[in-house]
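Objective 1b of the project was to move from sequence-level analysis to a structural picture of ligand recognition. The entry below was assembled by the postdoctoral researcher (A.K.) and checked by the PI before modelling. It contains the amino acid sequence of the target and the SMILES of the bound compound, fe (ii) ion.
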Amino acid sequence: MPRIAIASLKPGMVVASDVVTEQGRVILQRGKKVESFHLQLLKGLCIEAVEIEAPSGDSDREEQAAAYARDFFAFVNPDSQVMIELFRFATGLVGARLAEGWIPPSLSERRAQNVEQLEDVFPVEFADPARIVAHETELTSFPDIYFKLKEEAESPKASVRTLTDLVSRDMGLTAKLLKLANSPLYGLPESVESIERAIAIIGIQELSTLALGITAINYFHGIPPELVDMRRFWRHSISTGLIAKIIANAIGEMKNERFFIAGLLHDCGRLILFKKLPYASTEALLYARENFVPIVEAERTVFEFTHTDLSTELLANWQFPKHIAELINFHHNPQDGPDPRLNAVVHVADIMANAVDIAADGMYVLPPFDEAAWNALGLPPSAVGRVMTAFETEVMETMRAFV
Ligand SMILES: [Fe+2]
Ligand SMILES: [Fe+2]
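Corresponding predicted holo structure:
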C-alpha cells in the first residue's frame, strides 16, 4: 500500500490501515474515505503520513508503477533495507502520478531534442577537468562580493555590520536570503523582514555561508536550454540541499548550513560540463538513458572523468571553503572523503532527491548507493520514510525562494 505524506493526501482517498494518534486513539478507521475536514484534523494532530488504498481496480496501475520504479532502481542493491524503503516510497509516488493520468515518457521521448547545433568548446578527447576549468575561469570571474562574503564566512571575527552592508548591496541576494529565512527551512514563528534580524536568528556564520552559496549559484547561467531544464535541475539541487539539512539534523549536526549549501551545489560540475561540452554532455545523457546506467557512470564512459572531478577542480580554483567543497566533491564516493559520516549526508540526500523526482521526469537511473555510507549515519532504515515526509512538507515553499 502506498504511504503518503499528509500534504499529499486528498479527499476521496481511502485509508488502508487505522490512523492512530500517539495516545492510541483511532482517528480514521481502515477502509474509510478521507473527507476534507480530516485533512485539518490530521495536520492538527501532527500525524505526518498515512497508508492509503490504491484506487479500486488499479492493481494493474500498481504493477505498472512498480515496473517503472524497478528500471529506476536498476543500479542499486535490491537486498538493501534502505533501498527497499526508498523503492516503496518511489513506487507510491509513481502510482499517485499514474492515478492522475500521467503517462510515463517512452524512451524516444526521453531523448534530448534539437541538440545538433550545440558545439563543444574543444573536442572531448582533449577535455580534462583542469583544461575545462581554466577555460571557464579565464572567461568569467566571480563578482567582488563573492570574495568578501568568503572572508566573512571564514572569519571567526565576522561582524553583523559588515555582513549586512555587503548583502544589502545586492538586492537579489537580499531578497533570496529573506525568502529563505521565512521558508519552512527555518520554521520560524514570526516573519523575518531584515538581514539584521535574519543574522540574529540564523547566526552570522550560517548566514554568510548561505549568502556565499547563493552568490556561487548565480554564477551558473547561459546553460543551453535544449540540454537541460534548469528549473528541474535546481529542483533536484534544492531537494538535495533540504534533505541533506534534514538528515544532518537527524544525526545531531544542527544549525549547519554547509549541508544545505553543499546539497544546492553538489552537481555544479555538471553545469560546467553543459557549458563547455554541451554536445558531448548530450551523448552522456543519452548513453545513460539508453543503457540504464547512472549519469555518473555514463560520464566516466564518455569523458573518462566525472562531474565530481570537475567540481573538485572548479571549487579549488574558486577557493571555495574546503569543508563545503569536500561534501560536494565526494557525494558519489563518500567513503573516500575526509569524514565519511559527513560525506554520507550529501550522498544519501542526492539518492533520495533523485527518488523524489522519479515521476517528475523519470529519465534517469538512481546513482549507485553506498550502503556503508548509510551505516555511517547511524540511522535505522525506517528513517527513510521520516526524512521523506519531513521533506515533502518543506520543499515547495523553499523552491519558491529560489525559482
Ligand atoms: Fe552527482
Ligand atoms: Fe545529484
